[in-house]
Amino acid sequence: MRLRSRLSVRPSGRPLETRLLLVVAAALVVGWFGMASTLAGRFTMGEALPILSWLLALGGTHVAFVVSGRHLDQVLLPCVGLLGGLSLLMMERMPQGLVQQRIGDRTLGLAESQLLWLLLGLGVLAVAAISIRSVRWLRDYRYTWALVGIVLLVAVFVLGDEVNGARLSIRLGPVSGQPSELLKVILVVFLAAYLADNRLLLARASLRIGPVALPPLPYLLPMLAMWGIAVSLVIVQRDLGAAFLLFGVFLALLYIATRRGSYVVVGVTLALLAGVVLYQTVGHVHGRIDVWLDPWADASGAGYQVVRALFAFARGGVVGTGLGAGLPQVGSAQAIPLMHSDFVFAALGEELGLLGVVAIAGCYMVVAERGLRIAARAPDEFQSLLAAGLTLVVVIQAALIMAANLRLVPLTGVTLPFVSYGGSSVITNGLVVGLLLALSDRQAVRGAPARASRVGRSNIAQGGTSAEEGVPA
To answer: Among 67, 252, 321, 448, which residue has the least CB neighbours within 10 Å?
Structure first.
């Protein structure tokens, strides 16, 4: 009888998620209608199968959440639905020849390929959110995951394909992937487990170098070694975006766990020094910095991408040109190079304007708020740090690529989560959000036994939420 009660499933309503998904569906249908009508020159829905397939998949995921009976966050899925729908709108609007994905006897264009990746990412999200009832295995095998990540990166360095001066992906037949995407999750798991076990020792200073207080080196070195190996391999592969992302997550989690601002100061100082050295010694880094500082010096060459992105934002103005009314292509040339991956935010800025890009940035801010709220309500320090780290992975990555498109930081080459084209990125971010959803159900997810105090979790955030908002109080 006890086993039967554990296996029984009691469906649980999700009213807030239902309402938000209806709003998302209405917005995407109106957007698709406007885009198709603009492109055709008459009122039409055009070929609406991609957007309808996405909305049906979102509805099916929502029903699965209801039937599962788990008390998952009710805001994250609508956010993913909106971002994925915007991605489909832009991919359908762009030249389909930008991507040719062959599956069997059929060749998929850009929009069909992105729909496939989005559906796979949503499937990973749903499976992770519903099936993960304990994260103890993540904590117990942290060194195994770290080893797997390093092996994958070494494999990329030895066997990977080089694109635009960076060796990022491994190709298996018609499919290629970027292991550095999976490394984000692996590193967060490792850092969360290590910091949860050694937070008090890391927070206590016992070594001083001038005005800077450091923790005992035996406890700091293993974490620094793991991070240093991963980032060194990424830099060798010239994947600067992943290096910046991993470094940012590392520093943020270290500060969250210890609340020692000196770690951030030392980390940022070391990063600036490393940047100066790399600028002087690595041509790839030198070129990226020069283009960032003055793209107009070679506007038709190395600075062409950045200049065209700035023109796109200028054309968009406040309200945008409208979906389907931008200039993704002039003759046979792309108005915005790599607009389906690195510069999709600029393409959205042209057609949706300032209001649109602020709304997109606001969607990622909502993801940040929900993720940190989940972290603050976690039952133990490992789950708290894990939720915070997973949230930072999505938010920092989005901030990096949006700022790079606006020329606020050098172009790093990371993707805009759930919006840029790319299977590795979409599936990995689906896993990240799926884990966050699983962690949001405090009644089901159990990790290692809680630490003696809840001080670590209070370092992340304060406050609670109601059951209707999706995180049980």
So the answer is: 67
Q: Are 85 and 24 a contacting pair, CB within 8 Å?
A: yes
- What pLDDT score was predicted for residue 269? 83
Q: What whole-number distance in Å separates Cα of residue 345 and Cα of residue 335?
A: 14
Q: Domain coordinates of the chain in residue numbers? A: 140-448
Among the listed residues 422, 424, 445, 449, the one whose alpha carbon sits nearest the alpha carbon of residue 435: 445
Which residues, listed in sequence order, are joined to residue 162 by a DSSP beta bridge?
167
The answer to whether the CB of 373 falls within 8 A of the CB of 471 is yes
32 pLDDT more than 60: yes
207-209 and 175-177 beta bridge pairing:
unpaired
**In 334-441, where does DSSP find H-type helix?**
344-376, 381-405, 423-440
Cα three-residue angle 415-419-422, rounded to 5 degrees: 55
Output the pTM of the full model: 0.88
CB-side exposure of 206: number of CA atoms within 13 Å?
A: 11
Q: Measured between alpha carbons, how far is residue 50 from residues 22, 23, 57, 111, 146 in Å?
A: 17, 18, 11, 8, 37
Lowest mean pLDDT of 14-18, 33-37, 40-44, 449-453, name the range.
449-453
Give the mean model confidence (pLDDT) for residues 2-18. Answer: 71
> Buried (b) or exposed (e) across 132-142, using 16+ Cβ within 10 A?
beebeebbeeb
Nearest C-alpha neighbor of 374 from the set 390, 360, 359, 363? 390
Buried residues in 210-227 as b, exposed as e (16+ CB within 10 A): eeeebbeeebbeebeebb
Cβ atoms within 10 Å, residue 231: 21
Please write the tens of the pLDDT for every residue from 195-212.
888 887 777 765 666 666
Q: Is 75 helix (H, G, I), strand (E, B) or coil?
A: coil
What is the share, in percent, of the chain residues with pLDDT greater than 90?
Answer: 45
The two three-digit tokens of residue 377, written as one number: 């309500």
The answer to whether residues 347 and 419 touch, using CB atoms and an 8 Å cutoff, is: no
In three-state secondary structure terms, 160 is coil
Q: Are 166 and 413 in contact (CB under 8 A)?
A: yes
* Mean pLDDT value across residues 333-362: 89
Task: Calculate the average pLDDT of the chain.
Answer: 83
Q: Could you tell me where the beta strands, DSSP code E, fall in 130-264?
A: 161-163, 166-172, 175-177, 207-209, 212-214
* Angle separating helix axes 110-131 and 49-68, nearest 10 degrees: 0
